[in-house]
Amino acid sequence: MLKKLADSVREHSVPLRDNDDLDVLVDKIGDARLVLLGEASHGTSEFYQVRAELSKKLIQDKGFSIIAVEGDWPASQKLNGYIKGYDTETKTAKEVLKSFNRWPTWMWANEEIAGFAEWLKDHNRSYSGTPKVGFYGIDVYSLWESMEEVVRHLEKTNSPDLSLARKAFSCFEPFNRNHEKYAISSAVYSEGCVEEVTKLLQRISESRDLYQYEEESILDIKVNALVTANAERYYSTMIFNDEKSWNIRDLHMVEALNEVMDFYGSDSKVIVWEHNTHVGDARATDMANQGLINVGQVLREQNRPEDVYIVGFGTHSGTVIAADEWGVNLEEKTVPQAKLGSWEDVLHRTGDFDKMLFFDQGNRHLFSSIIGHRAIGVVYNPEYEHLGNYVPSVISERYDAFVFIDKSHALTPLNLYETVF
């Protein structure tokens, strides 16, 4: 099986020598409206660099105007304001990236994103058309930050919904911004705030016309209310049901993404930056056996096949930014050579250079075998990665294309040491 797979890789792979070679991938993307760009880790420089260069080409050549990332909505909105020129006081992207102050900060507060953000700002400044390119975080974790943003919006307009928001927020105050404390209280003792946040989300959804008072305010308050409601569900579920909480999170990311696309209009085109485990279709992995879904699967189900294009990323060896456990200081860790017989091992053995593969009706069957595919999270122990870091996958069904970086390097965080918030 591996020999046939290796032969197919040799026949169908295309070298990736420089950014000009990405033009082939842009052509393959064609008229897709949703382009999902993965990563095999949250701490690899080349993944960020290639995604940035590819995004630039899609923005300039194909008219994409939305970057949606696996990040918090409130912090991303500050970067969005800088990129679009709403924020006239902040001088540099590095300064605004300090808003990403919740662990793991390195995912977005890094040199690679700072450079890309400056490019986006320059592009928007020189672009005479509309809409300007925006940057949005669609993850679910920012429960307290999003609630604060809802209250801020309502205070600014002296909204009749302010008392309802304050009541919902007061329900969370005893937990002192501690997600685990809230999760235990809600799941074990049924002392949660679901009724309060559900009423708030419904009320804001019904009163959307009241909140159009500044740039993107109506989108901002709606998504922050959505985060509050879905984050409450996520934390209430995570103690006893990992599968259900995972699905809540990924469904939220799709829901938030659809809100952004609706705001931009029916012809909007979006680029999504998330981990392979979120963008690569879950039905092509063993996730499906556990009842798990993900963003890539749901977007394929919600849209026409030709409208969604998914690109996976991987590496054979190198270095990465990660941590030993949740909430502790980041480290530059060594990524060992890929496990023998894995997807990354096959790609390396067919030539130790960077390459791209494209899957279509003519060749998908050649890559239809199930093979281990490496996934590195923000918590990572290289010594034990063979025990749980390889996801059995049908690569040609999980992705439409794959970018392989043979030897990769750790990204450059703006903060060398993490502070737990």
Write the layout of secondary structure elements.
Blueprint: H1 2-12, E1 14-15, H2 22-29, E2 34-37, H3 45-62, E3 66-69, H4 73-84, H5 93-96, H6 111-126, E4 134-137, H7 143-156, H8 162-172, H9 179-189, H10 194-206, H11 217-237, H12 242-264, E5 270-273, H13 276-279, H14 295-302, E6 308-322, E7 331-335, H15 343-349, E8 355-358, E9 370-374, H16 385-388, E10 390-394, H17 395-398, E11 401-408
Parallel strand pairs: 2-5, 2-6, 3-4, 3-5, 6-11
Antiparallel strand pairs: 1-8, 6-7, 8-11, 9-10
Helix pairs in contact: 2-3, 3-6, 4-6, 7-8, 7-11, 8-10, 9-11, 10-11, 11-12
What features would you describe in this structure?
The chain is an alpha/beta fold and 421 residues long. It has 17 helices and 11 strands. The strands form 2 sheets. Strands 1, 2, 3, 4, 5, 6, 7, 8 and 11 form a 9-stranded mixed β-sheet that branches. A hairpin with an 8-residue loop joins strand 6 (308-322) and strand 7. Helix 3 runs parallel beside helix 6 (111-126) and helix 10 (194-206) runs antiparallel to helix 11 (217-237). It is globular. The chain starts with a helix and ends in a 13-residue tail after the last strand. 50% of the residues are buried. The model is unreliable at 416-421 (pLDDT under 50).
